[in-house]
Amino acid sequence: MTSNWDVSSLPLIITADNPQTTLEEWAFGNREVIKQQLIVSKAILFRGFRNKGGFASIADSFFDRRLKYTYRSTPRTELDQHLYTATEYPKSLSIPQHCENSYQRDWPMELLFYCAEPASKGGQTPLAEMTKVTAMIPTEIKDEFERKKVRYTRNYRPGVDLPWPQVFGTSSRAEVERFCIENQLTYQWTADGLRTVQVCPAFASHPITGDKIWFNQAHLFHISALDRASRKMMLDVFGEGGLPRNSHFGDGSAIRPNVLEQIRSAFDRNKVSFEWQRGDALLVDNMQVSHGRDPYEGNRRVLVCMSEPYSEFEPRNSSKPAGATSGSSC
Q1: What is the average pLDDT across 165-181?
Q2: How many CB atoms lie within 10 A of CB 254?
Q3: Confidence check: pLDDT of 71 > 60
Q4: Which of 31, 33, 25, 28 is CA-nearest to residue 5?
Q5: Spatial strand order in the sheet of 12-16
Q6: What residues does 10 pair with on adjacent strands?
Q7: Least confident piece of the model among 6-15, 104-113, 304-313, 316-325
Q8: Phi, psi of 253 (to 5 degrees)
Q9: ω into residue 126 within 30 of 0, thus cis?
Q10: What are the CA-CA distances from residue 303 to residues 86, 93, 114 (Å)?
Q11: Which of these, 27, 72, 145, 270, has the minimum number of CB atoms within 10 Å of its CB?
C-alpha cells in the first residue's frame, strides 16, 4: 500500500504505509501500475520502503533487463552486472541537466537511481520536465538545430578525459570499429589514440506520448561548458580540432556560445529538487525528464541502473566495408 499520489509534483512521491513493506515485493507486484503512472508523472520517488536484498534486487523487481553502459561519456564504476555508480565527478562540481545517452542514436527509456548514502550537504539530483524545457527554447534556435542536427566530436587520449577502452568497454580495436560501423560513427585511429564523429538529431519523439522533445547534449559537449580557465588551457594544448570533446552543428558549422547559454537557461529555469534520504529509489522516464547533480559535501553514494532500450534509427550492417582499414575512417 502507498500514499501521496499527488500527480502535480515532480517527482511523484510514493511512500510505504507499512515500513515492513519491501520495495522489491511491492514494485514487482505493481509493475504495470508503475509503468502507467510513470508516463503520467514522468518521475517517481519511492520512499520509506524496506530494502530486502540491496540495489540489485530492487532493480530486478522493476526491470526484466538491465542495460550495459556502452559508448560512455562520463566516469563511473560497475558494481554488479550493469549496475553503476552515478557519474564520478569531483564533489565540488555541478553536473548539468541532461537526458541519459541523448548524444547517441539509441538510449534507455527508464533510469532507476538508488540512494545508498545521502550527502551531508547538497548532492541533490535536480529534475526538469523536457516538454517545458523544449517550449522555453526560442523557436529560431530550435528550427536551426532541427535543420542542421548536432555533430559530436571526441578525441580519446591516455590521461585525458576517458580513454577509448573505457568508453567502448573493450580493448579490441576490431570491436570498436564494429560498434562505430553499426552506430554510424566515423572513426579514425590517430597517433594519440582514436577520434570519432557522429551526427545525431537534436529532437526525438516520445514513443508513447508523441511529444517532440529537445533531446541532445550539445550544451554538455561544447567547449563553452567548461569554465574560462579550463577552456583556455584545453584550446592552448589541443587546439579546437583536438579537444577531448566538442559539439558543432551537423554540417560542421560552429554553435554560437550565446545560443548554448539560452539552452542552459531553459534547463535551469525548469529545475526542481528534492533531498535524498537513505533507501530512496527514483524511477525516471529518461525522455520526459532530464537530471543533473548539485555539488555536495560528505560521502554521497547514489547508484543507477538503465533499462527499456529504444532507438530511432536503423543500424548499419556490422561487416566492414570493402577497402576499409583499421587506420581509416568509415
Answers
A1: 95
A2: 12
A3: yes
A4: 33
A5: 2-3, 12-16, 43-47, 281-285, 106-117, 301-311, 83-85, 78-80
A6: none
A7: 316-325
A8: -75, 155
A9: no
A10: 5, 18, 5
A11: 72
Question: Distances from the Cα of 66 to the Cαs of 57, 58, 82, 84, in angstroms?
Answer: 12, 12, 6, 11
The grid coordinates listed for 135 are 517550449
Full set of structural domains in the chain with CATH: 2-123+273-310 (3.60.130.10), 132-265 (3.60.130.10)
Closest of 215, 217, 199, 213 to residue 253, by C-alpha = 199
List the strands of the sheet with 127-129, edge to edge: 95-98, 289-293, 127-129, 271-272
The predicted structure's pLDDT at residue 187: 98
Q: What is the pLDDT of residues 298-314, one digit of tens each?
A: 999 999 999 999 988 76
Cβ atoms of 177 and 183 within 8 Å: the answer is no
Q: Are 279 and 115 in contact (CB under 8 A)?
A: yes
Enter the DSSP assignment of 241: G
Q: pLDDT confidence of 316, banded at 50, 70, 90?
A: low
pLDDT level of residue 85 (50, 70, 90 thresholds): very high
d(CA 98, CA 217): 7
Residue type at 106 in one-letter notation: D
Gap between the Cα atoms of 27 and 66, Å rounded: 16
Say what the pLDDT of residue 3 is: 44
Residue with cell 529532437: 203
| Beta bridge pairs of residue 283 | 44, 112
